[in-house]
Amino acid sequence: MNPWSELLSAGPGRGLPSDIAHVRTLPKRSGVTVDWPEWVGDDLRERLAALGISAPWSHQAHAAELARAGEHVIMATGTASGKSLGFLLPSVDAIQSGGTVLYMAPTKALAADQERSLRALGLPDLTVATYDGDTRPADRTWIRRNANLVLTNPDMLHHAFLGRHAAWSGFLRRLRYVVIDESHRYRGVFGSHIAHVIRRLRRVCAGYRSAPTFVLASATSAEPEVSASRLIGLPVTPVATDGAPHGATCVALVEPEPERSPSSRGRGGDGEVIRRSATAEAADVLATLVGQGVQTLAFVRSRQGAEVVSVTARRHLAERHGEPIAERVAAYRAGYLAEDRRRLERDVRSGAVLGLAATNALELGVDIAGVDAVVIAGWPGTLASLWQQAGRAGRSGQDALAVFIARDDPLDTYLVHHPEAVFDRPVESSVLDPDNPHVLGPHLCAAAEEMPLREGDLDLFGPAAPETVEDLSLQGLLRRRPRGWFWTKRERAASLVDLRGAGGPPVQIADAETGQLLGTVDEGAAHASVHSGAVHLHQGATYVVDELDLESGVALVHAADPQYTTWARDVTEIAVLREIRSRAFGPNARLHFGEVEVRRQVVGYLKRDVRTGAVLGEEPLDLPERVLRSKAVWWTLAPEVCERLGAEDVELRGAAHAAEHAAIGLLPLFATCDRWDIGGLSTTGHVDTGTLTVFVYDGYPGGAGFAERGYEAAESWLAATHEAIATCPCANGCPSCIQSPKCGNGNDPLSKSGALSLIAELGV
């Protein structure tokens, strides 16, 4: 019998929501152990046995054997499947033979967690050290000279390791393995940057006559060897059969019940039926589970959402069970100070925190020993992330609960009504484009500064490298000499690279009265999130932004209790720079893919009543325009078709706008992206096409591969878009089909029936 059955059927207040669209139990899986490889030393076996590990799971031993034989390998198995042991075994063997190992994690928190686990082994030959931005200068010197297993992150490898490779010469000459943990995180523009950091590392290693074996650990994904090979530029062998045990996981797909909205702009119209927000539903579920003693993680899409879920759940618990249990709920997100994050991680591991509302900052393999249940408020962007988050539930093989709560969003709504798209579809393969010139060029400059860039090195960086090097030479950034190309500037070439695509250094958020630093936000997101007048939440407290100083990189705030939230409004323009390819799309339309220039400017913000969502007013803002050169997919309708539809009373402007929103909402089902990774624009007469045009573009300089995937999968993508709109029960359009949470025009105008007519003309 399902141990969660009573909870799922008890109804609101005593159990989980009554509006459960689908429940499926993933069966319990027994573990498959094998003998230790003969080359694993007795001392390591004894220390692992003392930690309760008497034999390896089959995938751990398989990966270790491949790596020791010199094959580059990727372990693509489930959360908590023990991938760390797969790279630990060959690493210890190499170190005991005089070699060194470099471990790279996407976050400092994960590297620190691995260091804690490695030190717990107590192996005398293992000299482990973390080398990151928090490492003191004196410790850095000691680490370079003495450590044989160094843990770092991509940012440190790029900025401090490769640029000072001579100081690491002894370590690099003996480098046997490079471990890349959570490699599925390296996708899009970020992944493309990391691909070149790794190529630069391989090149520097070759200069010291070493050729390390790469061992990658990833969440389960489609064709993991393909994405891993694109990441490191070498053939990779996959290990994807998970030998670890796992308890049964009950997965519930929840669609919040509809409720009648007030008369308000952008909320479905006067009296329109809308759905309860996923964050409100998640707060109720979190409070219900914590109230029954179930340790629960609630994954929430945004920093502000995590804070709201935490505060709301605490309030519910205080009302139902009293303050002591309410105080065992907290929030966790990026932007907190490091000491606050470490304290929260410790409190979750110890059980002091029983409920945690977190962003995907806690999705990675930070060791919190598993929890009883996971709540996922809104689609996390990819199926791989969904299962990564759900896999957090389950303590030592015990049965677990995962609850996915759909947002009022086209993709979320589609998924709860098409459970086969969740349970019966393979997870995505990662999308990255190392040939993106905006990414490649700065890394070639950095490589030339590290060592003269020779003709034979260009193959390492891909087919676009020769042309890009010539362009850089014409710009005066590189100069060719008999020994190769050299960096010409006095400043460091590495400073040209923005690994995470944030667009600049983070903006610091500080309390204007006390001077206390509350956290940070990416510069690119600051315009919309911490503009003057914006409401900002931090660890349950509410602040209002007094001033955003972009030049100094500071947002000054003061504590307040406004009865409204804020929502930024922006204007967007797109120019077609170059059409790369196009094709006929049905009898009346054409599909295009190419390079575009996007100009965006935040021009004001709305104030919405915190209880009803009603718009209380709009305030203007004077912020600078942001210019982005990227790639887009767009479709155009023949002018005569537009004339015919207009004669049939189709409101073309609202129809195109609605089709754009819905298409953006569904693209993440076909490309490894999040709707916040992409943007769009629609117009009844674009200056570059001369007719009705709907654009969907990558939100990163040079593109990230998402729009191109949309071009390739356009028939399936737009057919799903049409179905999502057509099957939505609302009358005139709602957030579940055509309204967008990121619309800079307040979701006005929109035409649901018109969008269906437009997409039908595409022949999908």
Summarize the structure.
This protein is of the alpha/beta class and 764 residues long. 34% of the residues lie in helices and 24% in strands. Helix 3 (58-68) packs parallel to helix 4 and helix 16 (410-417) crosses helix 24.
Mean pLDDT: 88
pLDDT below 50 for ≥5 consecutive residues: which ranges? 262-271
* Cα separation of the termini: 44 Å
Q: What is the tally of beta strands?
A: 29
Write down the Rg: 26 Å
Total helical elements:
25
Fraction of residues in helices?
A: 25-40%
Write the layout of secondary structure elements.
Layout: H1 5-9, E1 20-26, H2 42-50, H3 58-68, E2 73-76, H4 83-96, E3 100-104, H5 108-121, E4 128-130, H6 137-146, E5 149-152, H7 154-161, H8 169-173, E6 175-180, H9 188-207, E7 213-218, H10 224-232, E8 237-239, E9 249-254, E10 258-260, E11 273-275, H11 278-291, E12 296-300, H12 303-321, H13 323-326, E13 329-332, H14 338-350, E14 355-358, E15 373-377, H15 383-390, E16 400-405, H16 410-417, H17 420-423, H18 437-450, H19 465-474, E17 478-481, E18 484-487, E19 507-511, E20 517-521, H20 523-529, E21 535-538, E22 541-549, E23 554-559, E24 564-585, E25 589-609, E26 615-620, E27 626-637, H21 639-647, H22 652-666, E28 678-683, E29 693-698, H23 706-712, H24 714-727, H25 752-760
Parallel strand pairs: 2-7, 2-8, 3-5, 3-6, 4-5, 6-7, 9-16, 12-14, 12-15, 13-14, 15-16, 19-23
Antiparallel strand pairs: 1-9, 10-11, 17-18, 19-20, 21-22, 22-23, 24-25, 25-26, 25-27, 27-29, 28-29
